[in-house]
Amino acid sequence: MAKSTAENTFLRLKTVLDVLTEGVWSGDALNAGQVLAEATARVPFNEHEAELLSGGIPRGHKTLTTATAKLVKAGWLVKGRSGWTITEDGMRATVAYPDAVSFATALDAGAPVPADTPVPTAPEGFVRKVTAAPVEPVAKEAPAKKTTARKTPAKKAAAAVGKAAKALEEAVEPVVKAVKGKTAAKQPVAAGSVASEGFEGPDVETHPQPEAVAVAGDFNTILGAPENWAPQYDEAQMEFDFLDQLWKKSAELPAGFYTFKIALNRSWDENYGAFGTFDGPNHELHHPGGTVTIRYNHATRDITIN
């Protein structure tokens, strides 16, 4: 029986820690893109997760990237300027919670790793295995007649994972340079080493995020959705910006008065209205016409409109 997106995501989060632990054993410095690519290669996307979102990124990859904030919150992962680093507790968590069920339960409950859990050590003769296919340069050849080959959803998703990983690194790079210019140089962390208490926090402060956020209101049909007030449709979904941790939706709307709410995970089970109130009154938009951008901050439940 096929696993759900939630089950697969927890499996991939566990795999993220496994991959980083193997990096410590082998002494390899692994960047975020390599870790995510390996996690998705070991736990492949199902058909739903392989669907490409508007940015060309597989749904499952975006879900995993957002969910890694859980590992940071648990103290098992540090997202720093030198890349992703697993903590000692993160390594011990791979031993204490070896299966997906116990891992998911502990992560959701915020349970500490049992004190008597040992830090795993590399098996004798350990060699780090890479499941994700490396990106190889394409040799130049004489022009040939173009042929069109159909790609399966899985192949499209695999190609898009590399694109997403590269985009993530390119997005974070300016922040890294800016921070380096403002702070004094500190003792670097050795490649592949376990994070210590003195390690600096992440350049981009992350917060746990929902799988999806929709602007559900009386203008969804203008955006192309089959009906209004329907958070389940793609046309109502916002895009998550990793750098500023905001969900955003831009659209062209005619002049008029509109109302809407923020709905999470394509349903009304969790929604926020005016003043960030759960199941509260509608947000109101008096729009003169043209492009409007709505931003939602899940950490504060606030919105901004311009």
Name its key features.
306 residues, Immunoglobulin-like, 2 domains, 4-stranded antiparallel β-sheet, single chain, alpha+beta, 6 helices
Folded structure, characterized:
- Helix 1 packs across helix 2, helix 1 (5-26) crosses helix 3 and helix 2 (32-42) packs antiparallel against helix 6.
- Strand 1 (77-80) and strand 2 form a beta hairpin.
- The protein is built from 6 helices and 10 strands.
- 32% of the residues lie in helices and 17% in strands.
- The termini are far apart.
- The protein has helices at residues 5-26, 32-42, 59-74, 88-96, 100-109, 153-182; strands at 77-80, 83-86, 213-217, 239-241, 246-253, 256-264, 271-272, 283-287, 290-297, 302-305.
- The model is unreliable at 135-149 and 182-202 (pLDDT under 50).
- The protein has 2 domains: 5-139 and 155-182, no CATH class; 213-305, Immunoglobulins (Immunoglobulin-like, Sandwich), CATH 2.60.40.
- The protein is of the alpha+beta class and 306 residues long.
- The longest helix is centred in the middle third of the chain and has 30 residues, at 153-182.
- Keywords: Glycosidase, Hydrolase.
